[in-house]
Amino acid sequence: MNMMQEVLIDKVVVNIGVGQSGDRLTKAMKVIEMLTDKKPAPTAARKSVREFNIRPGMTIGTKVTLRKESASVFLKKAFYAKDFKIATYSFDKQGNAYFGIPDYTEFEGQKYDPDIGIFGLDVAIVFKRRGGYRVARRNRQRKAVSRSIRVTKDED
Question: Which residue stretches of the chain have pLDDT < 70?
Fold first, then answer.
């Protein structure tokens, strides 16, 4: 196989959707910071949901994006929590993987803290090839990534 066709991890996004701002959101931020050792960013609602009393722009969740070494370190912990298994339906057509962990205490070394409570989290893994993706992200002569370069569901 060509070295430039090698499939790599581009980034890992860890997300906790709380659905409300305030005390629960700060606790969710503490959970993400405990697990990733990175400062999380708040996420805002895009649409209004009347049943949940959510308006656009209201902070309702938190996330952190991990790249390179910190991404692989976190994935080892996350796969330990999932017993090193991911279902086939967790992969989309582009070859990215998504899975959820129902409780942060499933991570190795984490104990239940009654002050924080129980929080589950979503993990998104984005894959890329070593070569070719810069074409879609550069400023000059930006083009679409060809099909031969894209990562597919079968390759993961």
Answer: 1, 156
Q: Could you report the per-residue pLDDT of 2-27, keeping only the tens digit for each?
A: 777 788 888 999 998 887 778 888 88
Question: Cβ distance 74 to 66 under 8 Å?
Answer: yes
CB 78 within 8 A of CB 101: yes
Q: Which CB contacts under 8 angstroms, 24+ apart, belong to 132-136? A: 132/4, 133/10
Q: Within 10 A of 139 (CB to CB), how many other CB atoms are there?
A: 5
What are 43's strand-pairing partners? 61
What's residue 14's pLDDT? 92
Query: pLDDT value at position 66?
Result: 92
The domains of the chain, with CATH numbers, are 6-155 (3.30.1440.10)
Q: To which residue do tokens 């990215």 refer?
A: 96
3-state secondary structure 45-60: CCCCECCCCECCCCEE
For the chain, list the strands marked E by DSSP: 7-17, 41-44, 59-66, 97-101, 121-129
Whether 119 and 27 have beta carbons less than 8 Å apart is answered as: yes
